[in-house]
Amino acid sequence: MKKFNNTILETLPSRYRANLINSCTGYKSLNLIGTKSSNGQENVAIFNSIIHLGSNPALIGFTFRPLTVQRDTYRHIKETQCFTVNQVQHSFISKAHQTAAKYPTEISEFAATGLDTEYLDGHKAPFVKESTIKYSATYIREHFIAENGCVFIIGAIQNLYAPEAHIAPDGWINLTQAHAVAGIGIDGYAFGAKTTRFEYATPYKEPKIKP
Amino acid sequence: MKKFNNTILETLPSRYRANLINSCTGYKSLNLIGTKSSNGQENVAIFNSIIHLGSNPALIGFTFRPLTVQRDTYRHIKETQCFTVNQVQHSFISKAHQTAAKYPTEISEFAATGLDTEYLDGHKAPFVKESTIKYSATYIREHFIAENGCVFIIGAIQNLYAPEAHIAPDGWINLTQAHAVAGIGIDGYAFGAKTTRFEYATPYKEPKIKP
Questions:
Q1: What is the rounded distance in angstroms from the CA atom of residue B43 to the CA atom of residue B109?
Q2: Which end of chain A is more exposed for a tag (fewer CB within 10 A), N or C?
Q3: Residues of B in contact with A128 (CB under 8 A)
Q4: Phi-psi label, residue A117: left if phi above 0, alpha if psi -120 to 50, beta otherwise
Q5: β-pairing, A181-184 with A82-87?
Q6: What is the pLDDT of residues B146-195, one digit of tens each?
Q7: How far is B38 from chain A (nearest CA, A)?
Q8: Between vectors from CA A43 to CA A41 and to CA A45, what angle results, nearest 5°?
């Protein structure tokens, strides 16, 4: 067991520290956020910080790193209030990873990486056609993280699309069957193998696996 | 492809909606948060919302559901400013799941579920002995999510412990090798099979898999 105390953490080389701290929090969701600026510029970028914030209303949250450099996704969301969230799946992980490259603002990462746009049900922002689990969303609010300058965005889910074959009778989506990918750290992609579900936990009863 | 528009989402049975919305955001980290009240009551509970917020300083964030009912973990953190975060691993998922059961405040979920406490390096809150990837943390601040009454907590990582064998030379932790588990929805546990890492993405270059 290796131990890093907080003095050691502060003195680690920054890339080492970033890898370590980004891994120790556990697996991450991997999603592509699609946006379109008010003058029509499309953009898509990978995010590993999207979390569930609530089901009713259906809310998500995610973070932007400090806005000290231009962040096209952020600017487009603020201009249009619209974005899409598209789960990264096995068949297009290298394209999804490549959206993280720093292309100039006037370059669409869709075109640059070979991902296809798709417009659905009148939503202004483009979806990623290759992704089968995705939703349109609108900007609700942001919280400034004073400790490091990051911004935590809250969004509301509008239209949700998912493959019928992988939705359980009770609404649960089998992400592993749908070949969705989890993130580890900054650059790791993990593919699920096996999934277990448990019944609702009740005090003093053995946890039961769902059939 | 099944579509749920936001009117349909609002009218779904609440359990179905909770399963669906909790799955559509992607894989989740699964961690046990260990706490101890100011009068010595130990507590451990599973959380699937912990995210990385920053590496320097090393910060994490996670959410509590509305504080309209007593939440022992929240109360202990506010009383002592201390907690531990312990990644859920394959060997103890059913015990980890069982910590979600609503035990009375005076019952330690460690004792009730058979998880072992461990105290390390003078930190006041108990660790989960069975977990090999874990850290002590201190409370920094909270943001109230006005839209649904949830609370987003920001914590600072203090001492970090991880298995040396699964830390890559550049600091990345191979969570799959360490048998860490990802969450799907509210009650799903997914085990990684294979992991791929990519080199830093550069415009106009093919993404390269790390050797």
A1: 6
A2: C
A3: none
A4: beta
A5: unpaired
A6: 999 999 999 999 999 999 999 999 999 999 999 999 999 999 999 877 78
A7: 24
A8: 165
Residue bearing the bigger pLDDT, B76 or A197: B76
How far, in Å, CA of B121 to CA of B119, rounded?
Answer: 7
Report the residue of chain B nearest A183, measured CA to CA. B27
Cβ–Cβ below 8 Å for A121 and B1:
no
Spell out where B68-207 has E strands: 82-87, 117-118, 127-128, 134-145, 150-162, 181-184, 188-197
With an 8 Å Cβ cutoff, are B161 and A3 in contact? yes
Strands A127-128 and B2-4 come out as unpaired
Residue in A6, A154, A187 closest to B198 by CB: A187
CB within 8 Å: B196 and A188:
yes
A111-159 pLDDT tens trace? 999 999 999 999 999 999 999 999 999 999 999 999 999 999 999 999 9
Q: How far is CA A12 from the centre of its chain?
A: 28
Interchain contact, B4 vs A143, CB within 8 Å = no
CA A98 to CA A15: how far, in whole Å? 19
Instruction: Check A1 against B164: CB less than 8 A apart.
Output: yes
Write the burial class of residue A163 (CB in 10 Å: 0-12 exposed, 13-18 middle, 19+ buried): middle
B46 has pLDDT over 90:
yes
pLDDT score, position B98: 94
Task: Compute the distance between CA of residue B44 and CA of residue B205 in angstroms, rounded to an integer.
Answer: 47
Cα nearest neighbour of A56 on chain B: B10
Q: Which residue of B has its CA nearest to A144?
A: B143
Question: Whole-model pTM?
Answer: 0.96
Q: Which residue has the higher pLDDT, B200 or A151?
A: A151
CA–CA min distance A63, chain B (Å):
8
Q: Which residue has the tokens 């995705």?
A: A134
User: Which residue ranges of chain A lie beneath pLDDT 70?
Assistant: none
- Cβ-Cβ contacts under 8 Å for B122 (sequence gap 6 or more): none
Distance (Å) from the C-alpha of residue A171 to the closest C-alpha of chain B?
5
CA-CA distance, A164 to A169, in Å (whole number)? 10
Token reading at B43: 């507590």
Predicted pLDDT of residue B207: 82
Would you say residue B17 has pLDDT above 80?
A: yes
Contacts of B151 in chain A (CB under 8 A): none
